[in-house]
Amino acid sequence: MPARAAGETACPNPGALGTARVLSVDTTKGLEVGTKSYPQTLPLGPKEVVLTFDDGPIGKPTEQVLAALAAECVKATFFVVGEQAAAHPALLKRIAAAGHTIGHHSMTHPIMTGLGFEAGKADIERGWRTVDRILTGRDGDRPVTPFFRFPGFAPTPELAAWLKAKSIGTFGADLWGTDWQKTTPDALLRQVLDRLDKRGGGILLLHDIHAHTAAMVPALLAELKARGYRVVHIVPAGPVS
Ligand SMILES: [Zn+2]
Q1: What is the three-class DSSP state of 42?
Q2: How do beta strands 101-104 and 31-33 pair?
Q3: Cα–ligand 1 centroid distance for 9 (angstroms)
Q4: How far, in Å, from the CA of 222 to the mean position of ligand 1?
């Protein structure tokens, strides 16, 4: 039985999917993972899944996702948008308090390839500073959690080099549910499970801002358990600098 991290409590639901293991991710030398964008991904075994949710926090859908994860004692990573965090600070704090990892996804979600370097850098920095001020009161030149995902998976070489120099890891995905398009919970579930089964796991991207995604998550977690998938919770390696 692995030791539990500080603040983590035992799962009250013995039949839950649960979090199989915690993976410490070292970003000291930079990191670019997710085979949709990069040649490499995280060191995951067969049928291991990292759950990631982007673009929130935003009211009811995020709350529903949190409730579904809590019911199954599953930890995920939320790549939050700074202006959403500023609009929903209590919800941001709830995500963190539940033990999920808070990654960063810029302040206003611009597609960085359409911006100059300074404008892109400023938007990324404002994002993590806003989030960290709400969560910790800190306003640093590095985020407390050095995990970042480019809006629209659209990096620029200059911003990628800057993030690497700051020891901030960049996360793409290995697969996603195409939930930004009109869909239904059932259709989305079938799509995600089909892609998961084809790939055998990986970093999964969903968006916690959509009602159809939030409505699908409980069934997804049930199917992950039924199909023998194991959820991996990613956390930053080493002490916060
Ligand atoms: Zn996004």
Answers
A1: coil
A2: unpaired
A3: 30
A4: 26
* Centre of ligand 1 from the C-alpha of residue 2, in Å: 33
CATH classification code of 47-236 = 3.20.20.370
Distance 104 CA to ligand 1 centre (A): 10
**Distance between CA 176 and CA 8 in Å, rounded?**
28
The residue ranges of every structural domain in the chain are 47-236
pLDDT (0 to 100) of residue 62: 98
Q: Is 204 exposed, middle or buried (0-12, 13-18, 19+ CB in 10 A)?
A: buried
Tokens of 123: 């938007």
Three-class secondary structure of residue 197 per DSSP: helix
Sequence letter at residue 57: P
Q: CB-based contacts of 216: which residues, under 8 Å, 6+ apart?
A: 177, 185, 186, 188, 189, 192
Taking the mean position of all CA atoms in its chain, how far away is CA 119? 24
Give tens-digit pLDDT for 71-118: 999 999 999 999 999 999 999 999 999 999 999 999 999 999 999 999
Residue 123 Cα to ligand 1 midpoint, Å, equals 14
- Rounded to an integer, the average pLDDT of 182-187 is 98
Q: Which two tokens stand for residue 179?
A: 């939930």
C-alpha Rg value of the chain to the nearest Å? 17
CA–centroid distance, residue 205 to ligand 1 (Å) = 10
Length of the chain: 241
Residue 207 Cα, ligand 1 centroid: separation in angstroms? 8
Question: Under DSSP, is residue 18 helix (H, G, I), strand (E, B) or coil?
Answer: coil
Q: How far is the CA of 68 from the centre of ligand 1 (A)?
A: 21
